[in-house]
Specification:
Elements: E1 3-4, H1 7-27, E2 33-39, H2 43-59, E3 62-68, H3 74-86, E4 92-95, H4 105-111, H5 123-131, H6 139-150, E5 159-163, H7 170-179, E6 183-187, H8 194-198, E7 203-206, E8 224-227, E9 231-232, E10 238-239, H9 244-247, E11 253-254, H10 262-279
Parallel strand pairs: 1-11, 2-3, 2-4, 5-6, 5-7, 7-8, 8-11
Antiparallel strand pairs: 9-10
Helix pairs in contact: 1-10, 2-10, 6-7, 6-10
């Protein structure tokens, strides 16, 4: 049976490390502050924003919350971001996605000062990752690297297959795995012979957005399987892109849903926030 990679435990370790760093910074008279902007009242977004506030309180950093109406214009949102860019007491700016349809997400992401881009979505942050320069890294892929390392999984020299090519997970994940000296294949909706491609992987990272799609037939014996997906099944229970019951007897290690990748995203956001003060 596979080792269950405990994202809750590892995320708590990282948040505790962040709390210690935040305390040390306070002793130097330096306080970290994250500004979170939410436009509209999407229920899932509200849950995420609330979890981010709780995490800030846990590690002892300040948080500012801006809950804007659904009909907020792009110009009004830009004005707020520009104001926060200029505030020396604000170290990180996070705009909760998705935004309402009348707002251009790309324009909003570009408006955030790259030195305050704790989500790691700004083109400058992505470019820095591409060429190996310092900068913020997208939180979910960065969290997966921590999950692997802190679970004793060797990355260097291993074959990694990533299913999904999104700007938020798939593409930065591939760059991070290359940085760790893995041999990387990125598969996607147009990949031919997906099952055969996946069966080559020592590390299989699944971010395809299809509930329980990946079963044991896609997984090489002894592979490490990381499930990024999150869905509600027919019984209204959370599940991932991987059929956990089918895959866990074949894999050497696997992340559960919930309790795997999910908690790591906020932990890495907190890590980016604490580190932001050194970048500025």
């Amino acid at each position: 049976m596979a080792q269950i990679i405990d994202g809750k435990m590892i995320s708590t370790m990282i948040k505790d490390e962040c709390r210690n760093k935040a305390e040390a910074l306070k002793e130097q008279g330096r306080e970290v502050c994250l500004a979170v902007i939410q436009v509209g009242c999407d229920p899932a977004s509200s849950v995420y924003v609330n979890n981010k506030k709780k995490a800030c309180a846990y590690i002892g950093i300040n948080s500012l919350s801006y809950e804007l109406k659904e009909e907020t214009t792009q110009e009004e949102l830009m004005k707020l971001i520009n104001e926060l860019n200029g505030r020396k007491d604000v170290n990180g700016i996070l705009v909760q996605l998705p935004l309402p349809g009348h707002i251009d997400e790309n324009a909003i992401i570009k408006a955030i000062d790259p030195k305050k881009d704790v989500d790691g979505f700004h083109p400058q942050s992505v470019g820095a990752l591409c060429i190996g320069q310092p900068g913020f890294v997208s939180c979910t892929p960065a969290g997966i690297i921590e999950l692997l390392k802190r679970s004793g999984v060797t990355i260097c020299g291993k074959r990694c297959v990533i299913i999904g090519r999104s700007n938020i997970v798939g593409k930065p994940m591939a760059l991070l795995m290359l940085r760790e000296n893995a041999t990387v294949t990125v598969a996607h909706s147009r990949t031919e012979n997906l099952r055969e491609v996946c069966r080559q992987a020592d590390i299989l990272i699944v971010a395809m957005g299809k509930p329980r799609y990946i079963d044991a037939s896609y997984v090489k014996e002894g592979a490490v399987v990381i499930d990024v997906g999150i869905h509600r099944n027919e019984d209204n229970k959370l599940c991932g892109d991987v059929d956990f019951e089918s895959v866990s007897p074949v894999a050497s290690a696997i992340t559960p849903v919930p309790g795997g990748v999910g908690p790591m995203t906020i932990a890495m956001l907190m890590k980016n926030c604490v580190e932001s003060i050194e970048l500025q």
